[in-house]
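Key result, reporting period 2: structure in, sequence out.
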């Protein structure tokens, strides 16, 4: 299993309950596919470098985890189709 990090930006106008639900959904997805979450960090609402769909702010979340390729593929697919996710990026942390 390799170490990965996913950072995603959520819509800033999501309610706190919906925000928590989405973050938990992604964490559960990683774990259900055999991955293990090492660290999860909520970086909070920050100004974006450029507007995305006329939105100037976003709620940043970073999750570090271990997993196989199938975890990455499914997580990427789910992040792409989830409403409320403005951008995401998954990187391989090479030691």
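The corresponding designed sequence is given below.
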């Amino acid at each position: 299993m390799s170490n990965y990090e996913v950072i995603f930006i959520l819509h800033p106008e999501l309610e706190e309950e919906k925000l928590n639900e989405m973050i938990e959904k992604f964490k559960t997805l990683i774990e259900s596919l055999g991955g293990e979450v090492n660290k999860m960090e909520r970086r909070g609402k920050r100004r974006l470098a450029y507007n995305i769909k006329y939105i100037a702010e976003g709620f940043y979340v970073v999750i570090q985890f271990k997993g196989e390729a199938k975890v990455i593929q499914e997580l990427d697919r789910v992040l792409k189709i989830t409403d409320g996710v403005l951008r995401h990026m998954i990187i391989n942390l090479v030691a």
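The first strand starts at residue 2 and ends at 10. The chain has a mean pLDDT of 94. This case is discussed further under Risks and Mitigation.
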